[in-house]
Specification:
The protein is of the alpha/beta class and about 140 residues long. Helix content is about 45%, strand content about 20%. The strands form two sheets. The chain has a five-stranded parallel sheet with strand order 2-1-3-6-7, with helices on both faces. Strands 4-5 form a two-stranded antiparallel ribbon. A hairpin with a 2-residue loop joins strand 4 and strand 5. The longest helix is centred in the last third of the chain and has 32 residues. The two termini are about 30 Å apart. About 10% of the residues have low confidence.
Amino acid sequence: MNIAFIQEEEVFKKALDPLLAKYPRWEVHFYDTPENVVWNSYDVVIIDWHLPGECGIVHLFDMATDETSTTEMAFLSKYSEWGEDSNIEMAIHCNLLNKSNLPEIEDFLIVVEERIKIGEKLRQLEIEVERERGIL
């Protein structure tokens, strides 16, 4: 699984080291800013809500409007509950992760990885069915 973290805080990056060491199959790229990130080249993009001089949520809106994208999106915040503002995460079809809660981030990434595996299996089954029907 190919993952992009857009988060400028070194403390956060270092805190992820033990988690990422558990999953060497995950290819992880860190960016300080969203510029030059090719969104569709990642299975998952996790972006900080507060980036220096800008708001990460704006970039998620840009990604969400790309109808060809299959990238899973999440944004990091200091809070995992937004109360009445939780409609923000629903509006852009992404997940809200508490950046101080590494198990929450791990669970999210595992779920995405499972979705990818299921999608690949479904594609393989579709190809087999098409071969049997003589379509391929």
